[in-house]
Design a protein that fits this description.
Blueprint lengths: L12 H10 L4 E5 L5 E5 H17 L7 E5 L4 H12 L3 E4 L6 H10 L2 E6 L4 H7 L8 E4 L14 E3 H5 L16 E6 L9 E5 H11 L12 E4 L11 H8 L2 E4 L6 H8 L5 E4 L1 H14 L8 E4 L6 H11 L2 E7 L6 E4 L4 H4 L3 H9 L9 E5 L14 E6 L21 E9 L5 E6 L4 E3 L2 E3 L1 H8 L5 E11 L3 E10 L7 H9 L10 E4 L13 H10 L7
Parallel strand pairs: 1-11, 3-4, 3-5, 4-8, 5-6, 6-7, 10-11, 10-12, 12-13, 13-14, 23-24
Antiparallel strand pairs: 1-2, 8-9, 14-15, 16-17, 17-18, 18-19, 20-21, 22-23
Helix pairs in contact: 1-2, 1-8, 2-3, 7-8, 9-10
Bound molecules: adenosine-5'-diphosphate.
The site of adenosine-5'-diphosphate (ADP) has 23 residues, from strand 14, strand 18 and strand 19.
Length: about 550
């Protein structure tokens, strides 16, 4: 009786086929790099993707070859997304904000043969081109007439690439376990590491992302990914939206709050980005007395979302926040703070508390917390441990890695420190490398930061451990004031002291005009510690 059901390979081309067949007219609105608004639909995106796949094959791209793409969120990028993997090739998304030497490293390490790049990002490639011996061709995502001048040889416009490709093409039937895309971690410590998603992992992950307790997209949604497609698999929205038959709004490269608000007002019901984008958006809304007319849900992740942001979206603007946690290595969604019945039954404060955690995992994600010896820790909401994760969307081995990144049972160490409570809700307290240890006890830097930004004049805050003669380390807050304000050290510390134990209150507040950030928009504590060392900053007993 074994094996009597169909073996239907889980390829990402089946996602775009489904969207184009059953939801062909769903609108895809896109702002081009030159500012023009273009309208398409899933049938059009699929046709464009078939043309890209056909043209790449004509250029000599074969199954398993790697194509690097450095582009903003546009409809054209969606066509390339499906075109590259539909040709059986591997889509390597490139973050233009990486340092030049990191870009050189990852393009060579992934053995990209072709680079596809938005016209405004061409200078990034021009600067490093001499160090990219394997690149055979650069394709600029522009029409022939709009091609920027370039010193590079072997450059084609997107229009020239597609000339003569009519879309009469069949997706290359790769194995579902073949590589589909590569995304490198930003490598804040050491070299960036390549995570190679398979077709199967992307399809299963998108199905899980679309479950009701995660992001739960439907054909009635219009999704606007502000998170770039090149960051952590684009939070998989380019898979989960067409899978659900949702429409999409692609905001292009202008990520100022005014431009994003304008794009959201074209009918978005769901959007997604890191907290800093939303902090700026809230300021913009308040300053201009603006509102959202269609937006219902906002997915916030990548860094811890402050309670004040969740509260403002829900109370002042009627938009539900889904606070999510994930990483490049986990495709990326691991958990989301949606309500189980136990949480739904709480009062507003209780529900808000639950939303400052990162919630619970979907089917296909398994989690545990362990101590340094690997012993599993209790789900009491207090005991902190290293967060471990396994599942079909979790990395097993990095690209060209010599050993598995996960243990024999599949557990991958996230590098995050977390608690899990009796309801199974996960709370991230720190990155293990950013832990503050005072008098032998751990203090959560994330908690201190989130209470500090609750002060209306604090734009951004970072808590770091500074050496202390008596306690080993003590927490210190580094604060960026909202422009034009000057909050006092005492006020900020008094606010934090209302919410944390006395011994956890930072010893000092340092004011800076800005904080150093990584290429994915996270505060770089490594650089911040360096900066304090350069200032000869020290605490005394
Ligand atoms: P990078 O390349 O910057 O490491 P990732 O997206 O892979 O990009 O970063 C994953 C890390 O981001 C997680 O391990 C965690 O530390 C942090 N992170 C993501 N979402 C959250 C969240 N909601 N709360 C706290 N930390 C988060």
């Amino acid at each position: 009786m074994r094996d009597l059901m169909q073996d239907w390979p889980l390829r990402v081309s089946t996602i775009i086929d489904h969207a184009a067949k059953y939801h062909p007219k769903r609108a895809i609105i896109s702002r081009d790099v030159d500012g023009t608004i273009r309208r398409s639909d899933w049938a059009g995106i699929r046709h464009g993707a078939l043309r890209v796949a056909q043209a790449l094959q004509r250029l000599g791209i074969r199954p398993g070859d790697t194509v690097g793409v450095m582009a903003w969120n546009t409809a054209r990028h969606l066509q390339i997304w499906y075109g590259v993997s539909g040709a059986g090739a591997v889509l390597h998304t490139l973050n233009p904000r990486l340092f030049a030497e990191q870009l050189v490293y990852i393009i060579n390490h992934a053995e990209d043969r072709i680079l596809m790049v938005d016209p405004d990002l061409l200078p990034v490639i021009e600067r490093i081109a001499p160090q990219l011996p394997r690149i055979e061709r650069v394709i600029v995502l522009a029409d022939r007439a709009a091609m920027p001048r370039t010193t590079l040889p072997e450059v084609l416009s997107h229009e020239e690439l597609l000339a003569g490709a009519d879309g009469d093409f069949a997706w290359v039937p790769v194995d579902e376990r073949d590589a589909c895309g590569i995304c490198y971690t930003s490598g804040t410590t050491g070299r960036p590491k390549g995570v190679v998603y398979t077709h199967r992992s992307n399809v299963l992950h998108a199905l899980a992302a679309n479950s009701a307790d995660m992001i739960g997209l439907s054909s009635c949604d219009v999704v606007m990914p502000v998170v770039p497609l090149f960051h952590a698999n684009g939070w998989a929205l380019a898979y989960s939206a067409p899978m659900a038959g949702a429409g999409m709004i692609m905001p292009g490269r202008d990520l100022t709050p005014a431009a994003l608000h304008e794009m959201l007002e074209m009918g978005a019901t769901v959007t997604a980005a890191v907290p800093t984008i939303w902090l700026a958006m809230l300021q913009h809304l308040r300053a201009g007395g603006l509102r959202f007319s269609t937006l219902k849900r906002v997915i916030i992740g990548g860094s811890s979302c402050p309670r004040a942001v969740i509260e403002a979206f829900q109370r002042d603007y009627g938009v539900q926040v889904i606070h999510a946690w994930g990483m490049t290595e986990t495709s990326p969604l691991g958990t989301a703070a949606t309500f189980t019945p136990e949480i739904a039954a709480l009062d507003e404060e209780g529900r808000l508390d639950a939303q400052t955690s990162v919630g619970h995992p979907p089917f296909t994600v398994d989690l545990k917390i362990v101590d340094d010896a690997g012993a599993e820790q209790p789900w009491d909401g207090r005991t902190q441990g290293r967060l471990m994760i396994r599942g079909p969307g979790v990395v097993r081995r990095y690209l060209k890695g010599e050993a598995d990144a996960a243990d024999a049972e599949g557990w991958f160490d996230t590098g995050d420190i977390a608690t899990i409570d009796a309801n199974g809700y996960v709370r991230i307290t720190d990155r293990s490398k950013d832990l503050i240890k005072s008098g032998g006890e751990w203090i959560s830097s994330i908690e201190l930061e989130n209470w500090a930004v609750a002060h209306p004049q604090v734009a951004e805050a970072a808590a770091i451990g500074v050496a202390h003669p008596k306690w080993g380390e003590r927490p210190v807050l580094v604060v960026v004031p909202v422009p034009g304000t000057s909050p006092s050290r005492e006020e900020i510390l008094a606010l934090v002291a209302k919410h944390v134990a006395k011994w956890q209150v930072p010893d000092d507040v340092i004011f800076m005009e800005e904080l150093p950030h990584t290429a994915t928009g996270k505060i770089s504590k490594l650089d911040l510690r360096r900066r304090l060392a350069e200032m000869n900053y020290a605490l005394s007993a």
